Amino acid sequence: MAEAVVSMALERLAGVVQKQIQEEVDLVRGVKKEVDYLSSKLNTIRNVLDDAERRRYKDKTVHNWLRKLEDVSYDIDDVLDEWNYAVRKLQIERKNKHKVCPIIPSSCLYFNKIATRRDIAKKIEGLKQRLNVILNEKDEFKFAINQPIDDPRESTRAQSISLVEVSDIHGRGDDKDILVSKLKQEVVGQQLQAGPQVISIVGVGGIGKTTLAQLIYNDERIVKYFELKIWVCVSDVFDEVRISKAILESVKKESSDLKELELLLNCLKDSISGKKFLLVLDDVWTEDHTKWEPFKISLNYGAPGSKILVTTRSERVARMMGTIEIHRLGQLSDTDSWLLMKHVAYHGRSEADYKELQEIGKKIADKCKGLPLAVKVLGSLLRFKDTKEEWGEYFKQ
Predict the structure, then answer these.
(1) Residues 287, 390: one domain?
(2) Most buried by CB count within 10 Å: which residue of 20, 88, 185, 192?
(3) DSSP single-letter state for residue 12
(4) Is residue 288 part of a domain?
(5) How far apart are CA 143 and CA 52, in angstroms?
(6) Whether residue 189 is found in the same domain as residue 63
(7) 208/304 same-domain check
(8) Helix, strand, coil % (nearest 5) of the chain?
(9) Using N-to-C axis directions, what is the helix angle for 2-14 and 16-23, rounded to 10°?
(10) Which of 315, 313, 279, 316 is nearest to 296 (CA)?
């Protein structure tokens, strides 16, 4: 869970400098310096999270350390929300300055800006101090650093599949409908010659990109619209041979002994030629266009209307793949977070148990800040806790 929360904070930080430049509001001095500092500390900590998560529920002190890390990551997110709100507010005040402060508008705006800057700068300084404490405590645990992948054909991440239990999902109905509509949209004119269009779902780790893609992949409207549906989990290593074999075997419904990329891609080209397909590439990380280009050429032989749906954490990846539409996936609402928590944590409980634990359960769900992965992880743990006091421990941490 810590990985998802830290990733969320890093994604938000990454967009701050660009937003300051675009909005032309110098709200915080040394924006890049402050953002780089926080990002550097979080990335250093993230390098040991694999080992920390393995030790989390065996060592109480590690568990508490991770909770402090998650809390400061959430607080970074909150400060960035406040920052963005202040930017919008100052822009409005600029446009309406004569109405807001008709006598001395410039002074009024200046002092508002200074007060806001000081408040946010003070909070950022507090976050830096907390991160330094967490960073120093990290060394006491002697965590193993996340190991690099020795074999380029091995991925450190679990392989996703297309199957999903729809009743387990909460809060993605609107996102699903929007994307289904985009995927079914007919191509016209010059786009007919451009090959399959790419649509990307972009969001931080743990936000539910794969889950949304699964919902779309199994939606009846999609099943009826596309002649072929193909699901491939790409993950952090873009292994061209493995991916091309996976696509080909999904199309032909049989295993392939081919090992050369040239043969695989030519066979793939022949197999999809003239057929309208949906290809889901889940969890794409590479920004290397040379790895994607051979696939793009082969996939161009599909029928007009073919689409590629990509899930990724990075807009840079989405742009590299020639995405025509980026769907930025947001956090779950408080209501949907609670519904998901209830579904996971209250499984098999009596009505009396539900009433007793409902209030504390909602508070715990709120602490997950709309991250479905965080809700599921905590919900799975709470499923085996029977008393209000035991649940309360997770709220305090």
Answers:
(1) no
(2) 20
(3) H
(4) yes
(5) 7
(6) no
(7) yes
(8) 60, 10, 30
(9) 30
(10) 279
Q: Kindly report the CATH number assigned to the domain that includes residue 324.
A: 3.40.50.300
Q: What is the pLDDT of residue 10?
A: 78
Instruction: Please check whether residue 5 is in contact with residue 378, taking contact to mean a CB–CB distance below 8 angstroms.
Output: no
Whether 173 and 322 share a structural domain: yes
Are 39 and 136 within one domain? yes
CB 203, CB 310: distance < 8 Å: no
Q: Of 305, 328, 351, which residue constitutes the final position of a domain?
A: 328
Closest-CA residue to 124 (of 39, 3, 64): 39
Query: Is residue 240 assigned to a domain?
Result: yes
Q: Are 366 and 281 found together in one domain?
A: no
Using alpha carbons only, give the angle 370, 376, 381 rounded to the nearest 5 degrees: 130
With both helix axes pointing from N to C terminus, report the angle between 60-95 and 31-46 in degrees, rounded to the nearest 10. Answer: 160
How many angstroms separate the most distant Cα atoms in the chain?
A: 80
CA nearest 194: which of 296, 343, 51, 295? 296
Q: Using CB atoms within 10 Å of the CB of residue 181, give its burial: 0 to 12 exposed, 13 to 18 middle, 19+ buried.
A: exposed
> Which strand ranges, in their side-by-side order, compose the sheet holding 197-202?
228-235, 277-284, 307-312, 197-202, 323-328
**Residues 6+ away with beta carbon under 8 Å from 266:** 298
pTM of the full structure: 0.71
Would residue 151 count as lying in a domain? no
Other CB atoms within a 10 A radius of the CB of residue 219 amount to: 18
Q: Are residues 245 and 303 in the same domain?
A: yes
Phi-psi region of 235 (alpha: psi -120 to 50; beta: other; left: phi over 0): left
In-domain check, residue 149: no
Lowest mean pLDDT among 187-191, 266-270, 363-367: 187-191
- Enclosing domain of residue 342: 334-396
Confidence (pLDDT) at 349:
79
Q: What is the pLDDT of residues 179-224, one digit of tens each?
A: 999 999 987 655 555 789 999 999 888 889 999 999 999 999 999 9
Give the residues across from 235 on adjacent strands: 284
pLDDT in tens, 74-102: 888 888 888 777 777 766 666 665 554 55
Domain boundary among 296, 328, 360: 328
**Total domain count, the chain:** 3
